[in-house]
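Folds vary. Our protein:
___
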Amino acid sequence: MTKDVRIMTVSTIHKRTGIIAATFCTILFGSCYFYQESLPPTQRWALSFGTDPLGPPPPHHDRADKDRCFDPYRAPGYLYIPDSPSHYNQTQWIPFTDQLLDAESLPISSYPPMDGKDVFFTRTEVEEEFLTAPTTPKIWMQLVKSENEIRGSAIQSTKSSEFAPLKDHGELSWLWGRRVVLVGDSVDRFMTQFFCEELGSSMTEPERHTTATCHIPSFNLTITHWHFPGTYTSRPDWWWMPNMKHIAFEERWEHLWSKTDVPSTDSTPGIRGLNGIPDLVMWQSGLWDQRMMWESGEAHAKSTGNPSPLASRTRQMCWEELRFTTSRLRKLLQTLHLSFGPDLPLLYRTITTHRDSDAKDANLYEIDRVSRFVASKEGSEVFEWGRCLSALTMLYMDQTHPAKGAASWLWGNMLLEYLKRSSEGWGECHQEGLAWGGR
C-alpha cells in the first residue's frame, strides 16, 4: 500500500511538473511573440535573425552612434516660424524623425471625431520636446549673436587681433578664424549683408556684381561673396548688363575674385582659414543661367528673323542647354578643387525660385536638378536652404530676393551648422553627405 502511494505521488509530481513547464513555455513564447510584434519592423527583422534585443539595431535604423552624421537640414522637416515677425530669431528647422511618428496622437485626430463635431484646427505652438530634441539643430545665430555682444562690450575695436585673447571664451572657440566663400548671385549677397548686420558689422562691396566681404572681428570670421553671373563663356552683345565686362567664371576669377585671395590681416582678412584653404565654399548659378537662356534664345531668334521655341520664357531647358550647363558647372567645381585642394568643403546652395513662380521657372527647377547631380559627382554636398523655403513667398522682399527675417535667420543657422562640421573634420561624414537627394 505504501509503495502504491509513493508511486502515485511521484507520478503526480511528474505530471504537475510537466504541466507547469508547459505552461511556463507557453507564457514565455506568447510574451516573446507579443513583444516582438510590438517592436518596429526593423527590430522585428533583427530578432528573427537572432540579434540581441538589447544590442544594437540593424544599420539602417536611427540610433545614437550615427547621430554625428545625421544632417537635420537634408531630412524632410517643418520650418517653424513664430507668428510675430519681430520674433523671427526663433525660426527653427525641425527635421522629421521617429519622434514624430511615436508621439501620442492628438485628440482631434481620433475617429469618430470627438463629440461628433467637425474638426477645426488652431495655431498651437510646437511642443518643447520637438524644439529641443537631439536631432533638431541648434539655433546657432542666437549663441553667436549673444557672444558677439559680450566680446564687443569687453573690447571696443574693429581689429580681430585685439579679440584674440577672447577667442576661447564660451562654446564658440571653433568659430575663430573661419573663412567662407560664396560663389553666387545677389540672393547670396543679401544673405551675407543680413548676416553681417545681425552681428553689428557692415558688408563692404567695392563695386556691384564683383565681390563683397563681411568680416566679424570678434570671431575673426569672414564671409566673402564672389558674384557669379552664370556659366556663359563669352561677353555677347545682347547681355542685359552693359557695364559687366567679365562674364565667364575663368575671367572673373582672374580679374575679380583672385583679388580677395590675399594674406589675412586686420584690413584684408583674406579667404583662407587656419588650414590654408577656405573652411567652406558654397556655389550656385540658377537665376543668372535662367536669364541667360532666355536672352540667348530671344537674341538668336531676332538675329535670324526666324521664330524659335527657345525664344519663349515659358519652356524647359533644351537638351543642348542642359549639356552646356553640366559641363560648365563641372569645370567650375574642378577648378575650385584644383585651386584649394581635394579636401575643400563644398556645398551646392539649392536654388530659390521667384516670388511669383509659374511656368517661367520650369528651367530653374531643371538647373537645380542638374546642379544637384553634378554636385554629387564632383564632391559637393547640398545646402538645402532653397528647398526649405519652397513656396514661402511671404518671406520675400521683392520678386527675386528672400528678405531679412525668418529666411535670413535660417540661412545663418544653416551656414554655422555646416561651418561647425567643417571645423571638426569635413571628411568624417562626407560620404553620407554626398547622397544626391535630387528630384
